[in-house]
Amino acid sequence: IFTSENQIFVVDHKLWDDLASDYDASVEDNQTQIIVDYLNREIEILTSICRNITNRNKNCSIIDMGAGTGRVIFALDKNLESNSIEYIGVEVSEPMLNRSNQKNQNYITSSKIKFLKHDLTESNLHENFEYIGPTIVMCLYNTLGVIPSDKRQMFVDNMKRIAGDDGLTIITAFNGDDFGFIAPKMYHSMMPMIRQIDDDSFDEKNKIFQNNLGFSSQWFTQNELKSLLCTEVEPISIDVKIDGKLHTFGNVFVDREIK
After folding, report:
1. What is the Cα–Cα distance from 104 to 198, expressed in whole angstroms?
2. 3-class secondary structure, 20
């Protein structure tokens, strides 16, 4: 269901099931320099933020909401090198979960990694999680943009409930303040998953990418994301160099200052 005028759309879960086989080719295994640079910078920032918390606390949990095939979970585990961190990847798509679990079986680690099936749009999502120690809850790579607009605030609020007073909520998102320049470069680089770009796919006015196959994703301005998170903390930019010049392709938002 897609309605650009009201900015309300629903991406059928079945669509993500169909995209699972092409997800890694478009994201984790994508050798397009724009995607490589974006993902490297995103992980670098996330590692720094998480290390700031995990180094000061004996037991921590890191939860990735909309984990895909586990890209960030495995990268953070390698970078943080701590056996006291529990990692949880949350997905609703069975094929995505199957690929995550297959990777996990072949992944040599002493850390705690597991993948759980939950619908991110459930109003009681927070009731499924309760952990000892600080909890870092994240939603990455513009996953927030495929959450139905009427459920986004509830989803973000659920993330903050799971994180609790001692935890942290993190959202990374593509830079909607420069949608017209960045969106075509990002989506043309992810064709294995996107599969099709139509003449009217880039709705610059509403900051929405859509195609006739049913893939739709909302982009956000910095102020919109800060409002959703109820934070005044300025985001950290995910910069990508094109023709020798850095461009902010995305941002990392946190709901509180890390001291």
Report:
1. 36
2. helix
Q: Give the 3-state DSSP-derived string for 148-215, with helices as H, strands as E and coil as C.
A: CHHHHHHHHHHHHHHHCCCCEEEEEEEEHHHHHHHHHHHHHCCHHHHCCCCCCCEECCCCEEECCCCC
Pairing label, strands 245-254, 236-242: antiparallel
Q: Spell out the alpha helix ranges (H) of the chain.
A: 13-26, 33-54, 71-80, 94-105, 152-163, 179-188, 191-194, 222-229
Q: Enter the tokens of residue 100.
A: 């995550």
pTM of the model as a whole = 0.92
Q: What is the pLDDT of residues 230-247, one digit of tens each?
A: 999 999 999 999 999 999
User: Rounded to an integer, what distance in angstroms lies between the CA atom of residue 90 and that of residue 88?
Assistant: 6
pLDDT at 57: 80
pLDDT digits (tens, 9 = 90+) for 173-196: 999 999 999 999 999 999 999 999
